Amino acid sequence: MKKNMGNTDKAIRTLIALIIAALSYFEIISGVLGNILLVLAIVLLITSFVNFCPLYRLFGINTRKDKN
User: What's the pTM?
Assistant: First the structure.
């Protein structure tokens, strides 16, 4: 797995995941939609922690700036 996510991308994913978690915690979103969004939040957090997004690889996207 070659890293393909930059710092800005990781920060945005983490922020979105935290917002979804807060909305779920305060029961603003619930039911099936809430569960789907929680799964999405978990995926966003995992991909931001490992610096790799499989969809980026599939589409050839790389937001990481390599230091030479």
Answer: 0.87
* Residuewise pLDDT in 10s, the chain (68 residues): 889 999 999 999 999 999 999 999 999 999 999 999 999 999 999 999 999 999 999 999 999 988 64
Written as one letter, the residue type at 11 is A
Distance CA 32, CA 3 (A): 32
Cα maximum dimension of the chain: 48
Q: Are 63 and 11 in contact (CB under 8 A)?
A: no
CA distance 63 to 10: 10
Start-to-end C-alpha separation, the chain? 19
